[in-house]
Structures are given as C-alpha cells and as structure tokens.
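note to self: the first set is below, dont mix up w the second
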Amino acid sequence: MSKSALSNRLDALAKLGDYIRSKPELLDAYVQRSSHHNGWFTAENQWRMLEAIAGDYLDRSKLDAWLAGYSFAKGKSRTVGLVLAGNIPLVGFHDWLSVLASGNEALVKLSDKDPYVLPHLVEQLEKIDPSFVGKTRFVERLKDYDAVIATGSDNTSRYFKQYFGHVPHIIRGNRTSVAVLHGNETEEELRGLADDVFAYFGLGCRSIGKIYVPAGYVFEPFLEILHEYKRFANHTKWKNNFDYNYAMLTINKEKFLGTGSILLIESEALHSRLATLHYEQYTDLADVAIDLNATAEKLQAIVSASPVVALEVVAPGTGQRPSLSDYADGVDVMAFLSGLE
C-alpha cells in the first residue's frame, strides 16, 4: 500500500470520526434501535463508546502516530475474518479499524447482541470514500478467509482454535481487570476508579472485577462514591443481578459491604459476578505483584493511582479508554496484519 493510499484511508477514517462527533440523528436512531434490542446497551453507554472511538481511534494525528511504526509494503490485500464479541457496544471496532487501516478486507461475523451500529458506520465510511465499498462484508458464517481474529469466551476460544487453526489467527478468551489501592487515593482518583467499575455495567474485559486494598483499609469514602451510582438500581437487568446476589449472600450468611448499587465481597477470585465487586486485603505490595504476574494471562488491565513495582498500571478513570496501541490481550494486531503473506 502506497503512502498516498494510506493517507487517503486515514483521511476517510478521520472524517468518520467527524461524523460521529456531529451526533447526527440517523446515527442516534441506530443507537436507539440497538438499546431496544439489547437492554445492556443503553444509549448512554453506546454514546460513551462512540465518543471514545471518535476521540481516541479516529483522530488523524493519533492514527498517524499509531501506524508510523508499521510497514504495509505487500501488494495484495488479504481477507481477514472477524468474529466480534457483544459484551459491550462496538467492542470489535478496533479489530475492524485495524483491518481496514492496514489495507486488508474485513469479513465480519457480528454478535447478535450488537448488530446495528457498526454496519451503519461502515455505510457512512463508504459514502465518505467509495474506495472502501466492498472492503467490509457482513456474513453469518466465515468462509474464504486468509486469517482470523476471533473473540469469545474461554469455551468458544477452544472451539475457535480448532476451527481456525489452519490459518494465521488471533484467538481471545475471557479476561478481567483489577485495581490496586494504596490507601491514600484522592477523591478524584476514587471517582475515576468507580467509573472503571461501573462503565458498561462491568461487562467489559477492562471493567474492574476486583480491588486489592491494604490491610485495615477504611472503605467508607469509596463506598460513598460507589453509592452515587444508585441509579443502576433503576436498570432492570442490573437490579435483578443485585437482588439475586444480595439474597444469596444473606441466605448463606456471608459477610459483605453494600451500597445501593453494588455489593463488595472479600474473595481471592479475580472474576466477580454482575453487581458485585471482589476485594482482597494485602500487607505487602510485592505479594500482590507476584500474584498478578502469575495470572497475567487472565488480566486485561491493572488500575492504580501510584506505581507498583513489576506491574504495568493505568491511572484510575482511564481503564475504559484504551489507546490505539493498547491491544486486547497484549497481542499486537497491526503487527499480525502487516506480517500476513
């Protein structure tokens, strides 16, 4: 792909970002349709993702910086099959963007939980630049592909590895994120952490499912901030999960900390159920680092307001805003695509 062809592609993608930022009525109509189709995909959460995509993924300067380190010298484009997840809105957008930005073609199997907004964005991109027409095809079943990027559960990932093992592939399973508190976080930092917990109803791999706190941690300031998300009690699906977990904890006489929005349970498990948040107390940060490094293949992000030796961390409030180079599971998708023969 020539430099001029790449520049034209990035111009068009940046204009797609402008389209999103303008919040046109047509796009909002698809957002509303999606929210009626999937109760977890509220209009608020969809627009949150769209604004992040426009600001973090479809900014021209960020696109230039992202692609500067890759080479796309091959003459023939490849067809890359994408199996998209549907846990949060437009979760597969980065994979689709990577395929098109690299000059390849996308063969997309949408999640039935999120079937409307991405096809609309593709249609708009094709109007912006007709050279994109036919570069994205939506299918019910993948066939005739040169490579595959598939995201699903741990169970489906095993199936994906068997089914797509004959071609170059990236297969992703379940991951979660955690936070490490030091006990001296500011109110602003705690608010950022709360947002990382509640964003997208905690359904994303970058959602915080567990926090590590120093022994004797005083929870009240954090609980007060978590309680500000009490509006979640008005969301039927969230409320059903909250009520079920509350009932089971009460029946089993298990200890927990509660707010009107979420239940905190002391547990060593990384993954927490919906409407709950696990916590674990520590006496030595070095032990936390050892534990988290040992389970690195299960983690997407580690949030902390202060550095933690031997861990790569992100600041509270930024866990749900990955950059273009923050690849899911730490696998460089663009390097994978640029290396296809």
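second set (the one i keep forgetting abt)
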Amino acid sequence: MSLLVIRTSSMGDVIMTLPLLRSFASAYPDEELVFVTKKPFDHFVSDNTGIRVFLSDHHGRHRGLGGLYRLWRELRAHYNITAIADLHDVIRSKIVRTLFRLDGCRIAVIDKERALRRRLVRGRLSAPITHTVERYRAVFARAGYPLDILPGPWLKPSPAGSKEASAQAEGKVRPLIGVAPLARHRLKMWPADRMEAMLRMLSARCECTIFLFGSPDEASTISEMVSRVPGAIPVAGTISLDGEIALISQLTLMVAMDSSNMHLAAMLGVDTLSIWGATHPRAGFSAWGMPEENQIQIPDTQLTCRPCTIYGKGECRRGDLACLEWITPEMVLKRVLDRLKRE
C-alpha cells in the first residue's frame, strides 16, 4: 500500500513538507510514501529512506488534461496507491485526486483556512492561524497516517553538496553567517540600503565571514550588494542547489526575509533570524522550529495595518512601507550580535 502526497510548489511550501516526510518514514517503515513534486524540489526529499519521489512534468508529458490523465495512469501503474494526501489543493491536484477517488482511494485535502486569512489581513483576527506544517500533519492524519513530528534537522546535505560547500567554506573566518536579502515580492523585502548598512556595521564589529544567498536569477542583484559590502561573498549562481543546502548547514546563523531560504535554513537546524514586513508570522508561514524571539518585525500594535497581505503581493496601503522602513540597521545588528553571543 502507498500514500500519495501531492505538493508541487512553491519552494517554501515544499520545504515545509520535510518534517512530515521524515516522521512518516520513521513511524511507518513498512509503508511506502510517493511524493509528487517537480524539479528542482526533488533535491529536498531524495535522501529520505522510504520516500519515492515522482516528478510531475508540468510543461511536458503531464501538461493539460491529457497530461494529468497520463500522470494518474503512470502513478497507478507503478504504485499501489490506497490513500491521497493533497497538500496543494489546486486544479491539477484536484483532477488527479478525483481520478484516484474513482479507484476507491481515501482522499484527504489541506484546509487552507482562507476565511481566517481574509480576516487576518482585514485586521479582524489577532490569534495565529495554524502553522502550515501542522495543517500538513492534519492531512496525513485524515489520510490514515497520524504522526508525531520528529525533532530536527529535517533536511540533510548530500555527499556531493557537502564536498562543494567545504570548498567554499575552507579557510574562511568563523563564524559563518548567511544572509538571504531578497524575496519574491517587494512587500517582504527589507530595503537594500538598510541591509547593506547593517552588514557593513556587522563586519566592523565582528570577525566573521558573510555569505549572500539567492537564486541564480538574483545573482546580479546579489553581486551589486556584495560590491558595497567589503568582504561579503556571493553564493547566488555560484554553486549548485545541493552545494547551497550543504553550505547553509555549516552556518552559525542565517538572516533571511520571509522566503524559501528562511525555511531552508530552519529545516537544516540552523539558527535563523527572519525579517518581516507586510506579511506576518501569524499567517502560518514562520520558520518552523525557530523561537518567536527570532522574528524581527514592527509590532502590529504600532502598525495596525500589518499584515496587509498573506504572500507579499500587492501594494502598501500607507504608501510608505513603514513595516520595513521602520526596521533600522541597528535593530537587526543587535539581534544578530545577541544570537552570536549565545553561540
């Protein structure tokens, strides 16, 4: 018998499945879990014993209705699927799970708590929404697989990635500090001049090595930042994803926006400071396993417009990005130095 788990995007959401995948493999060693995702997200889960990764080719053989029918047939031919945990709940996953429902499979679907999210951004909800990892766990339970989540780390570097990372870190002054200064949306990103000022002050106050992380698409922006922060080392676009995972695992501290790098560092068990603007940890997407004190933000008692978005899309209601502009380099530097002292 096999449990089919579906989550194909986005990167942060896929990363947050890792505590459940590792816990499943430990709790149900005689059961098989088939995880449907897409490249390059297989890098996050391929080392899990007992987890079978099946790649959905959205733009190729699994494109459109015919492609989804083909996906169902391929899964059906290779595995004895008896239950579905749909962690995505989008049109593609709905079609696939409906086809399996016709086979008599048990179906469990994530509750995205959309009504609560609307209340949160309208300022009518002060309690936190269930964390995404916990909502994933509820889906597993409804699919017939209740889980106790194992302690982290929930992601392990590959041997090839570790070799690549060791070459990057060799001879570098420690502690190694990672910084992921970018995010997909402007409402989640601390202004570059503030980040650069903080990093220059950190370099002056502390003997350390600073690595700047980002996607290959962000490499040029990261390089520009490095040119204004003496001694910082760009990682974006310079090593493979496996190498990046391994390098993050060697860090003493990661400083990140509300982004996939924040989730990646947390899953690797690295102490992670997260900077929040228009989004809010209460929306259920905070760094899993990190203490609340690691969240840097302007309290919503001071800025009652926070949060104004769940994912970072849209425009600032005030027009001045106060949620990000009010966070000073000194505020972040103090939190960084405090965390380094604890090490």
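remember for set 2: Residues 64-78 form the longest helix (15 residues).
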